[in-house]
Amino acid sequence: MKIIDLCAHQIFDSRGVPTLEARVALKDGTVGVGSAPSGASTGSHEARELRDGGDAYQGKGVGRAIENVNGPIREALLGMDAALQGRIDDRLQELDGSADKSRLGGNALIAVSWAVADAAARSAGMELYQWLGGAQARQLPCPMFNVVNGGRHANNNLEIQEFMFVPSGADSFHEAMRMGSECYHALRRLLSEAGLSTAVGDEGGFAPNLERDEQALEWMVRAIEAAGWKPGEDVCLALDCAAAEWADGEGYRQSKSGARFQRGEMIEFYHALAGRYPLISIEDPLGEEDFEGFREITDALGDDLMIVGDDLFTTNAERLFRGLALGAANAILIKPNQIGTVSETIETVQLARRNAYAVIVSHRSGETLSSAIADLAVAVNAEYIKAGAPARGERLAKYNRLLEIEDRIF
Ligand code: PGA
Ligand code: ZN
User: Fold this and answer.
1) pLDDT digits over 296-311, tens only?
2) Is the distance from the beta carbon of residue 146 to the nearest atom of ligand 1 less than 6 Å?
3) Is 79 left (phi over 0), alpha (psi -120 to 50) or beta?
4) Which of 28, 90, 174, 332 is deepest in the core (most CB within 10 A)?
5) Whole-angstrom Cα distance, residue 376 to residue 373?
């Protein structure tokens, strides 16, 4: 079905920062929409967001990205068949011509790429997950609920960016939501009773000041029990350290306390945590260039834990390939805006799949109301989805869409 029009306009993300939404119109009257989320702890190898600079919006305006959609991108895609996502995404890459999508903007490209997928699915009368995954889509992901926020996502004193509940004992997505929601509310009550802050960070998790990061895990175990579930059986724990933020020369220096660690000490620290708490996953335990360290920690802990590469891989097949060759990590975080098009995202997932790496589809800390990543997770049979706390509209947009998919379809 032919594309007859394409445009973009400015919206605001969940942090109140400008971003863009693209709209594609097809000859049969179908309209598709797509938008660009935005990270705070972004990897150096991500597709580049095009921002205007200057005084307005602290330099974060997206006027140039919007002009690129309304000008050269529109020109290039008019008349193309929206059903051929691969061809569209190839055209976008060609037109951009840079290795990191910096010319037209990764934010412009991902919004357009999603809008085309949305329009094509609607025009075919299909659900987005069905359109993207075909007959192979058959599994709902297990949610990873980020319920304590630290690092760059909150101005508290926690160094680790994300502490998550993972209801891996749930029999259905509905049950997983119930567990996550009950544990989240129990955690709020416990923190509040202890006189700790229940104000939330960027992804809807609580952001208290604690003496040590480890105490967040202790509160979480208590919350699981208080909600009537079994830690380690019904509900497990996961971390995203976002340790690229701490990389400092050969070693690491935590951003808030200034504490220094060598790679070996970091691995020891995670080893000890895994012995004390029902952890099933650690994301970015080390820096984004530390492939060797990732190999080492995967050797040491990978039989029992998911070692997840986010800033390490940036949803980039070439970087994943490098990791596969070394045995660095055993799972990958998938963020479509890290690579810039829907087709490249799916190619990276396929490479991970062929090599038995677990797949976690993920939101960004700055989000829109789009639920497209929920459909992507179902389309690629991702084991997990990470979309923040079971609170705040932009996080629930993803989880509620999965409830709908389970209700209506499975
Ligand atoms: P970001 O955080 O969206 O700020 O990059 C999410 C993550 O690190 O997984
Ligand atoms: Zn991460």
Assistant:
1) 999 999 999 999 999 9
2) no
3) left
4) 332
5) 5
pLDDT at residue 200 is higher than 70: yes
Element containing residue 247 per DSSP (H, E) = strand 247-248
User: Could you tell me if the CB of 362 is within 6 A of ligand 1?
Assistant: yes
Closest CA to 309 of 271, 351, 275, 276: 351
Please tell me the distance between residue 73's alpha carbon and the centre of ligand 2 in angstroms.
30
If you measure from the C-alpha of residue 410 to the centroid of ligand 1, how many angstroms do you get, rounded to a whole number? 30
Q: To 5 degrees, how large is the angle CA 179–CA 36–CA 93? A: 125
Active-site annotation, residues: 203, 335
* Amino acid, res. 246: W
Report how far ligand 2's centroid is from the alpha carbon of 90 (Å).
27
Q: For residues 112 and 220, what is the distance between their CA atoms, to the nearest angstrom?
A: 39
Residue 368: which residues within 8 A CB-CB, separation 6 or more? Answer: 11, 13, 14, 19, 21, 35, 36, 37, 394
For range 52-66, the mean pLDDT? 98
Instruction: Tell whether ligand 1 has an atom less than 6 A from the beta carbon of residue 41.
Output: yes
CA nearest to 144, candidates 171, 163, 120: 163
Answer for the pair 119, 84: CB distance below 8 angstroms, yes or no: no
pTM score, whole prediction: 0.98
Please work out whether the CB of residue 39 comes within 6 Å of at least one atom of ligand 1: yes
Three-state DSSP class for 121?
helix
